[in-house]
Amino acid sequence: MSAQHIYTSAPLGSLIRYSNGKPRPPARFRRKLRAWEHENGIGRLVERYPGYASASFNSPPHFMLHLGDYGSQGTIVLTVRRAYGLDSSLHFEIVETPRAGSVRILTSVDGRDELRHLAINMAAAESWMQVNRYSNMRTEIVCDPDPVILPPTTRRAA
C-alpha cells in the first residue's frame, strides 16, 4: 500500500507496518542493520496532518506513527514518533485496526485529532486519563465499522 492509502483509509490507532522491501542484513553488519531498521518496522497511527500552504511556507500532508516509548520504572523518558509524507517511497500495510468497543483517548489542535492512548474499554480509558493529564482530552468509542475522519485542509491566503 502507498502512504496515500494509509492516510485516507487507516483509522487512528491502527498498527501500520512500513518497509523498504529489502531483506534484513545479518546482525554482524551493524550500520547496515541500523539503516534497515530505520526503514522497516511497525508503529501505531496517531495523527494525520493535512498540510499547510502560505506565500512563504509549505508543509505537505503527512501522517505520524508512534514507534515506541522508552524509560524505566514506569517513567517514560523518550517517545519516538516519525512522520511519513504521502510521497514516501516505503511500502505500508495495515496490520491491525482498533477493535470495536475499544476507546481512543484524543486531544485536538487546530481541528486535527491526535491519539494519546488506545484503551481496551472505558474503565481502562478513565484510569489512564486520571494518571495522564492533557488539556482538551476526550474519549471516542471505536465503532464497527470504524469510519476514517480526515482533518480539514489548512490553507492560508498570502
How would you explain this protein's 3D organization?
- The chain is an alpha+beta fold.
- The chain folds into two domains: 1-97, no CATH class; 99-146, no CATH class.
- Helices cover 16% and strands 42% of the residues.
- It has three helices and eleven strands; from the N terminus they run αβαββββββββαββ.
- It has helices at residues 3-9, 30-38, 122-131, and strands at residues 15-19, 41-49, 52-53, 58-59, 62-72, 75-85, 91-96, 103-109, 112-119, 138-141, 154-155.
- The strands form three sheets. Strands 6-5-2-1-7 form a five-stranded antiparallel beta sheet. Strands 4-3-11 form a three-stranded mixed beta sheet, with no helix packed on it.
- A hairpin with a 2-residue loop joins β5 (62-72) and β6.
- The protein is globular.
- The mean pLDDT is 88.
